[in-house]
Specification:
Membrane topology (chain A): Multi-pass membrane protein
Largest sheet of chain A: none
Largest sheet of chain B: 6 strands, mixed
Number of strands of chain B: 13
Structural class of chain A: mainly alpha
Family (chain A): Belongs to the binding-protein-dependent transport system permease family.
Number of domains of chain B: 2
Structural class of chain B: alpha+beta
Subcellular location (chain A): Cell membrane
GO biological process, one term (chain A): transmembrane transport
CATH topology of the largest domain in chain B: D-Maltodextrin-Binding Protein, domain 2
CATH architecture of the largest domain in chain B: 3-Layer(aba) Sandwich
Helix content of chain B: 40-55%
CATH superfamily of one domain in chain A: MetI-like
Shape of chain A: globular
Largest interface: A-B, 73 and 66 residues
Shape of chain B: globular
Oligomer: heterodimer
Order of helices and strands of chain A: HHHHHHHHHHHHHH
CATH architecture of one domain in chain A: Orthogonal Bundle
Radius of gyration of chain A: 27 Å
Radius of gyration of chain B: 23 Å
Main location (chain A): membrane
CATH superfamily of the largest domain in chain B: Periplasmic binding protein-like II
Distance between the termini of chain A: 34 Å
Helix content of chain A: 55-70%
Strand content of chain B: 5-15%
Chain lengths: ~325, ~450
Amino acid sequence: MTTTTSAAAPAASKAATRRGAPRRGVANHGRLTPWLFLAPYLVLFLTFVIAPVILGGWISLHQWDYTLPGKPFVGLQNYQDLFDPSSITFGTFWNSMQATAIFTLASVPLLLVVPLMVALVMNQKFPGRNLFRAAYFAPYVLGVAVVAVLWRYLLDRNIGLINTYLGNLGLPDDIPWLSSVPEAWVALVGVTVWWTLGYNAVIYLAGLQDIPRELYEAATVDGANKWQQFWNVTFPGLRPVLSFITMITIIASANMFGQAYLMTTGGPGRETRTAIYEITQTGLRNFQMGSAAAMSYVLTLFLMLLSVVVFWLFRERKA
Amino acid sequence: MSTAVRSGASRRRRFVLGTMSVVAGLALAACGGGASPEEAAQGGGAAEAPEFTGEYDGPEVTLSYWNGFTGGDGPFMTQMVDDFMAEHPNIKVESNTVQWAEFYQRVPAAVNAGEGPDVGIMHLTQIATNAARNVIVPLDDLAENLELSADDFTEEVWDASVYNDQRYGIPLDVHSLAMYYNQDHFTAAGITEAPTDLASLEEAIPKLQAAGYATPLWMPQRWPAHLIYLSLLWQNGGEPYAEEGDEALYNSAEGVEAMEFMRGAVDQGWSPSNVDPDAEYVAFKNGEVSIHFNGIWQINDLEATEGLNYGIAAFPTIGEEDAVWADSHNFFITKQATDDENKYAAAQVFVAWISEQSGEWAGSGMIPARQSVRDSGALEGLPQAVIAEKIDTMRFLPPIPGVPTVQGEALEPAISEAVLGNAEPEAAMTTAAEQASELMKRNLESFGG
């Protein structure tokens, strides 16, 4: 590590001594220094990430109700229950995992493609561009409660605006958007796409602006049409951004809770009760923290496997 | 919170944060009570109840008072608390209003951490659960000193706050399900008297339909669907839970019949299908629904609805006997208050005073629980007076710990499926009963019977 990079050393010997001193200094005092620099973050990381991970694992081995004095150790029972078809948690848990899977599979492709198209348009030069950029991003600043309550009323089967307008257009006006599947999934995915596409679009837009203009010029010179330019310049250029967006979109979708909680209350029956919803109910309403912790570890495991797959898909391919 | 967790960060950190936040939340929540189980186990026995004189003359204390009166009932409670403080200068009451939906999650956690209420109000249905969790303490002495007894309350409401032979709640009011109707619709259909039973209901509906109200009675599939179901089950002579608290009887003949009536309302065309949460209430306020079942707590909101000419009557007797679901707001004192003798004494004075002044509370739309208060004319001219006449037919859930969550987990989704027509009433109720029974057995185990 040299300290003389900016200043062109006037005398070589002087530079040598200066270079030598700090190196010895690092060796003498350095052991703690990096940790001290890390400390502010490390404290937070240990308190809010590592400690809960360990404590959560510990809780998952107990029948843990924090309001009761006894928290009996049950070993892997909570996990066994999740994989034992005869236990009552089995049905509800896997039903909720299925709900999460359905939502993720339906929403992720849309949240990858639609924002990309929006970003491509927003990357063009046209009057009022900033206004449109703001308009697409606007829903994202709303909280989940606002979004969900708003859409709950709009989508109501009997008194909602959407069905009324559909009726005015001569289309079916009795679509149960919130109380029947698959309609409820369409509603939940649609609302989520409307709500969050702006965020992904902004990231895409940043990625698009990072692609050197010369590449397009070179492609044009080579006679590539717009479509070929997209596949051979834009798409590869977006790869790092794409892998980031894919990952966070999958995780965000797999953690879907608020929309289902507020719009469908998990209904019809418990069809749209997602994994996070089920974990919240189990842990915070039914006070079965042990079982809920076990569920969240199983969900975590699934997400980890999924991210390995995503990383593998987006790995740098060395020609 | 799903997508809300997005802000700039590296992929890996995001991943860890995203997936672990759930675990973190749980673990943090668990920290509160995990520290000293023995201490928690002692529960209410911590301090001897001081001699109750009805007055508090100790040093100045501040009471933390929690309730869930977020609606039209809120201002009345605030007024009562202000009046109390004016009369008791050495007791300061700090109110904290938390939505009921969050209330029962927060109170146990907060009390365990010593940051919760000293005194508060919760629903009767929640009393046994919180007693079993050692959140609240017995109030037998207080009831005795106040010379409160079953004589001044109906037996049903008085007995329902007794758990393991100890009293944990002092009822402030009772509130039942009621039938609201649109006066203009009734006039148009030529109905002069509100239906009181199945026969008059079956007579009224076709008249309303003929008058142009195609679907006069909207049957909800979510809240308050299970309250309608319970009312009907009781009317049929059934009980939702076995006395031992280890079994749910939703699929009894009475329960299935209740469910069939509810689905029948849709099948017969009284109600549209797929009524979304709260839609039937909004539609009633908009004048699209003729007959609507809801709690009397909606009175103030309906009063404030412009252009709505509504009437209120008792929930009709559709089964064999007169019965209606009801609940009650009950005072409780937490184990947290008993740690401090002065707070404990002040809390008792507070409960006694408000309980005596509950006439004012009638303005919130509720029915004062005390006979003496009702007799003093507190309900005169108020809409809920007609409901109060039926106080002897009000039924309360038995004091079995854990029942509210059992209903939320097992009964409510099953009712939703049955009303939506996704499951046959009997099949839905059987599945729900099995699931509920299993949960109840587990509850008995963890609460030690």
